[in-house]
Design goal:
It contains seven helices and two strands; from the N terminus they run H-H-H-H-H-H-E-E-H. It is mostly helical. It is rod-shaped.
């Protein structure tokens, strides 16, 4: 390989690592979002599903490690250090294997995740307490109001809440109420209908709420987000393969190393 080709390969590898650094930052940011998000359905899952919290730490670790590896790759490419390029190749290979293993594991556990998601929501509905200011309850109220749904499978799921069904008047979840206007703000807790002498019990059929459950809409929302995650992961994997190819080509054609080129801090 001529000196001109080596130079082109070197700077292609540098640009590749710059892009790789940005993708690592995206993965790191996604892990942070899962951990700190309090305004979407992710917050409901976090409170009862520890695997999601663990997954956020995994994303953050992989993102930080990816950024570190891209930094080493930049130094190894620009300064033509075979040792750093070899380490860079080995770690890229490990990251790629880990990503494939994690993706395979997630694919085979997606059914269990959906089932667990339904169990978490149903437990939240059963134990919902209107007198408590609970972040998971507030988030689920927000989801019902924004997605315009009620319960998990249907609004009838709320009949399993003892506090709600103990009322003798028409009482329903406020966040399930059908909106009259788009700018209506969701209200937390339970609401009561004006007293009606013809109704002597809290019959769900008289609730002015959305009849459709949230299951299909929430699962569709998660599916869309998972598609984005998978897209990012596939993009990272393709870039990793290109980086491995470029690094091994450059490493093979560097015949001697000048360690004086390596920056010293």
């Amino acid at each position: 390989m001529g000196s001109a080709c080596i130079k082109v390969t070197k700077y292609f590898l540098f640009l590749f690592n710059l892009l790789f650094f940005i993708l690592g930052a995206v993965i790191l940011g996604f892990g942070v979002w899962i951990l700190v998000d309090k305004s979407s359905f992710i917050s409901v899952l976090q409170t009862s599903y520890n695997s999601l919290r663990v997954g956020s730490y995994v994303f953050m670790s992989v993102g930080a490690f990816t950024m570190l590896m891209s930094f080493l790759g930049c130094i190894g490419a620009v300064n033509e250090v075979r040792c750093l390029l070899g380490v860079y190749f080995a770690f890229l290979l490990l990251i790629l294997i880990a990503q494939v293993a994690a993706g395979t594991l997630f694919y085979f556990k997606i059914g269990k995740v959906k089932q667990e998601m339904g169990n978490i929501v149903m437990e939240l509905i059963r134990n919902y307490n209107s007198s408590q200011n609970n972040s998971a309850q507030n988030t689920w109220d927000y989801v019902q109001a924004q997605v315009q749904c009620c319960g998990w499978v249907s609004f009838q799921n709320w009949t399993e809440n003892a506090e709600l069904m103990s009322s003798t008047n028409i009482t329903y979840p406020c966040s399930c109420k059908e909106k009259k206007q788009e700018n209506d703000r969701p209200v937390m807790g339970f609401c009561q209908q004006p007293s009606n002498n013809t109704v002597i019990s809290n019959n769900p059929e008289y609730w002015p709420v959305y009849k459709e459950g949230c299951m299909k809409k929430v699962q569709a929302w998660l599916q869309e987000n998972m598609a984005v995650i998978l897209g990012v992961c596939v993009g990272v994997a393709v870039i990793e393969l290109l980086g491995m190819l470029l690094s091994i080509c450059l490493c093979r054609h560097i015949h001697s190393e000048d360690y004086s080129k390596v920056p010293k801090y």
